[in-house]
Amino acid sequence: MPAFDVQQFRQQFAFFQQQPEWVYLDNAATMHKPLVVIDAVTQFYQQYNSNVHRGAHQLSQQATILFEQARSTVASYINARHLHEVIFCSGATAALNQIAFGLMHTVLQPGDRILLTQLEHHANIVPWQLHCQRHGVIIDVVPLTADHRIDLVAYEQLLALGPKVVSFSHISNVLGHIQPVAEMVRLAKAAGALTVIDGAQGIVYQQPDMQQLDCDFYVFSGHKLYGPTGIGVLYGKTEQLKHLTPIFAGGEMIDSVSFINTSFNKLPFRLEAGTPNIAGALGLSAAIEWLQKYNNEQLVLHKSLLLKEFYNGLTFIKGIDILSSSVHNAGIVALNVDSEHPADVAELLNQQQIAVRSGQHCAMPLFSYLARPGAIRCSFAAYNTLDDVNRCLLALEQTVEILTA
Amino acid sequence: MTLEQLLADTKPVLLDIQQRDLAEIEQAKDWQAKYRVLMQLGKKLPAIPEKMKQPELLVKGCESRAWLMHYHDKATDKHYFVLDSEARIVKGLMAIMLCLVNGMTTAELCQFDLCHKFDQLNLKPYLSQSRGNGLTAMASRIKQCCK
Known about the structure:
A: alpha/beta, Aspartate Aminotransferase, domain 1, Aspartate Aminotransferase, domain 2, 2 domains, 15 helices, B: mainly alpha, Sufe protein. Chain: A, two-stranded antiparallel sheet, 6 helices, 2 strands, 11% strand, globular
């Protein structure tokens, strides 16, 4: 395979031609979309637009075929056993809400325990509070080690309390640290718990293999995998999907309705109420097909080179407080300028057209643990270049200079 | 520290910002110069002591926390403000906002068009809804003071 050509890769993103002056390092928030994805969405609306699974006419049948092909693309990408194990939803947040809501009173009963970790995104905390804790489920939290990773010793001790469900992120959205998910799934299964993986940041780092990973649920958003916003995936093993009470009802998810009793359609439709985001699914499928033309190891290697260069450059800037470790990092660096508020740092970077996120990144429990008011987050993607890294470093240097003048 | 003392300390600073720094910001030759002035503004303002930062003073809608204290002198019908923020640039921008309205009567404050004035100072982008810096929230909090 030829060496990875970042310029060739980057050229496929119209955004960078439209906004050449910007350095975009907010990829953990959302990624840019290659032209093939934008074309797939446009093409659907221009050529095939019809509702799915209501096949009174040929157009609808065609749209249904495309939509179901998209499901198939996703299923084979993540190596699901069955097509119906891929549930389309609006994103990782919706998926986690469906799982938390859906397990309550089926798998989870009042008094049961579930296990989360200190570094979760709010989307993997609040749904459990809203749908489960409120009904008497107890939430335990795995603490972190000194280098801000999940403490596996404490994890095992908490598993001994017998949680019914364990839910954790593949990659920390703030720190970029890659969690030992395979090991965590194995331990959780040995303890008899269902496993939920928040793959929002993980999906773009690694093509996850559901049969190998053997987790019960894995969720992700399309827009963090070069796809459109508003489309995401809830993967679940067939036997566990059956436990989920639908959070939304109506439309296609119904088998028969009367005012006495309603019976639900089979999977995956039972969990896909209403008209799905058809164009979004097609866009996500296009993103996956496009991405598979590249060797993911090369993309990961490119990102790790960018990260290395970034960490190296940071050592030359005075007063930088780096929260992320460079080891086992998927390409996210959270940092602060000593004794300065991240909002000021982000504002000065913004003036220099460096797009980063600042604040607590929907992970307030992590920041109270880190005892910081927040951080700026530089997140790298495979279309970022060494030039992006250097421009960000220069801008940071200028920022420090202005702040400490 | 009492509110009276804070007001007494803040008042001359806001006056100074209005008379001197605003012109400097308008004339700043590049963004670096503008931001250097903005950060100086934050430094000039006396800080609200931690004990006085009651939750009800917190201006919601900011990425960084900001506090606003308001005093209405009923005898003269004039409004005075004290401000603090965790973030220096935000504090500088908010200080500009305050210096424009400090000492206004209720009628003046009601009529005052903050957006227009910020536009004149080339600071309007900071007021946009999409920004989490809290300037918009601060503007509406100030406006509420005349009600």
